[in-house]
Every structure is written in structure tokens, then in C-alpha cells.
Write a structure and sequence with these properties.
mainly beta, four-stranded antiparallel sheet, signal, Ice-binding_C, PEP-CTERM sorting domain-containing protein
């Protein structure tokens, strides 16, 4: 009999007090999170509940499946070229199955991937623009919610709605890699959506987020919209680079002379 799995949201064991972002220098930052996680998401057995007795963890831990989480954004003027993706890996949670506190979400420098997608026709059929291998950076209990920046090999132009995604393949028992920002109840929706999909090692699940394969995910439906919160997953973009205009030799020479003169004046300027 196949064991059924579910993508389970687990709230923080302790309240995060600090938030640091590596995206502050980007020209355009696409984000729907507030920079602070309140939970993390990972695959667990469906039979595990918050009130059930602790389940002994097996050693070595089994592989539950591949977890993919995405945020969608609308392209803004001045941010049409995406050059990097920022993601927070995991959060400090208590495993609901074993009832043990996980300071690092059970993560330990595993290989992962990020993706940049577009949906040119708006039909949920995603087209891959770029992907990049990376290594998971486990959360630091003393400095939570640190974004890891993954720079794409080439800047990619986007328009309309685009998606950024993080893939955690071969998720093991006791791992919760997707950091989640949960907004206060009653707050209006933010300008963007979060999505979730996963595939299991058994190849079956009754969850609406189940997909036969998520490496890479090609099709999204409304069932994949994740409404519990927003992923700490961002994109960084900028405007198209200015085209260089060839200058004549005489102009270049004048610029060089002016630069040298300015340097001389600066050196001779008396101290105030």
C-alpha cells in the first residue's frame, strides 16, 4: 500500500526578532513577503497529526519527494530584466510528527535549484527562461530569515506575469525547506500570488498540490495557489542597459584631459 504524503505548514517554534535581506541594492525588487517568516512547509506523512503520539524517526530518513514553491509577479517598468533570485531556506519549527524542535528546519547544505518562468499565453503552461543550481543555506537561529542570492548566468527579459521558483529535490523526513510569511488575519491580498507543487517518491498523493513531476514544473492550475501565506522568495530586476554610442577620438581625448585636470585640481585643493 502506498503511503500518502501531504505538504504540511508548521509554525515557528520561537518568534523571529531580526530580519536581514540581501536584496536591498537591487534596482527593482519583486516581493510579496514582509521579510519575516512565521512558518515553514515540508512534506510529511498524511497520517501524522498535531495530536498524534510522536513517530520515531527512521535512520537513515526516507525520501518523501520533491517540493517546489513559486511566487508570481507582474512586470514593473524599470525591472524588465531579471538577474537574480533571493530565497530564505526554512525556519525554526517543531516537527509535528516527532515533536522535536528543528533549529535549522532539518536542512544541511543540500543541493537545490531556482527557476525563472514566464507564461506568455496566460494559460498556466509555464515556459522556462532560466534555471540555476544552488546549495541550501540552513537558517541561523541567531539571525533568522537571511536571504540567499542566486545570480543567473544571464539576465532574462520578462513581461506581463512571470514566476520565480525554488526546488528542493529529494526532501527527507523531518525537513521543512520552504519559509512562509503569514499575514495577519483580515489583511487585504498583496500584489502577487504564491504557488505550491510537489511530487512524491511513491508517485501518488491525494493532495491538490500533487504533480507527477516538478523538475521543472510545466503546468499550473488554480489548485496550486497556496493561500496560507507568501513565500520568502523574490526576484531582482533592472531596466534594459543603455546602448553605448561610439565617440570620436577627439571627444575621447578631451574627456581624458578634463579628467586629468580635475584630478590635479583635487590634489591641490587646500584643506579646510
Amino acid at each position: 500500500m502506498f503511503q500518502q504524503f501531504t505538504a504540511r505548514l508548521v509554525t515557528l517554534s520561537t518568534i523571529a526578532t531580526l530580519s536581514f535581506s540581501s536584496a536591498v541594492n537591487a534596482v527593482t525588487v519583486y516581493q510579496i513577503d514582509d521579510g519575516k517568516s512565521e512558518a515553514a512547509v515540508g512534506l510529511t506523512p498524511s497520517s501524522c497529526t498535531a495530536t498524534s503520539p510522536p513517530i520515531p524517526r527512521t535512520n537513515p530518513p526516507p525520501v518523501f519527494g520533491d517540493l517546489l514553491w513559486l511566487n508570481s509577479f507582474n512586470t514593473r517598468a524599470g525591472g524588465e530584466f531579471i538577474d537574480s533570485i533571493d530565497v530564505v531556506w526554512g525556519a525554526r519549527v517543531t516537527d509535528p510528527c516527532t515533536k522535536t524542535e528543528l533549529l535549522d528546519s532539518g536542512l544541511s547544505n543540500e543541493p537545490a535549484k531556482v527557476f525563472l518562468y514566464t507564461d506568455a499565453n496566460g494559460d498556466g503552461q509555464l515556459e522556462l527562461l532560466a534555471e540555476k543550481d544552488t546549495i541550501v543555506r540552513p537558517p541561523d537561529p541567531k539571525r533568522p530569515d537571511i536571504f540567499s542570492r542566486i545570480v543567473l548566468d544571464q539576465r532574462q527579459q520578462v513581461s506581463g506575469t512571470f514566476y520565480v521558483a525554488a526546488l528542493f529535490p529529494n526532501q527527507l523526513e523531518g525537513q521543512f525547506p520552504a519559509a512562509l510569511d503569514i499575514p495577519p488575519a483580515g489583511t487585504p491580498p498583496r500584489a502577487g500570488k504564491s504557488w505550491l507543487a510537489f511530487s512524491t517518491s511513491s508517485g501518488t498523493s491525494t493532495s491538490p498540490y500533487f504533480a507527477p513531476s516538478v523538475d521543472p514544473l510545466l503546468k499550473l492550475t488554480n489548485d496550486n495557489v497556496y493561500t496560507a501565506g507568501y513565500w520568502l522568495l523574490r526576484a531582482n530586476g533592472s531596466a534594459a542597459p543603455l546602448k553605448s554610442v561610439p565617440e570620436s577620438t577627439s571627444v575621447i581625448g578631451l574627456v581624458a584631459i578634463a579628467t586629468l585636470s580635475a584630478g590635479t585640481l583635487l590634489r591641490r585643493k587646500p584643506k579646510s
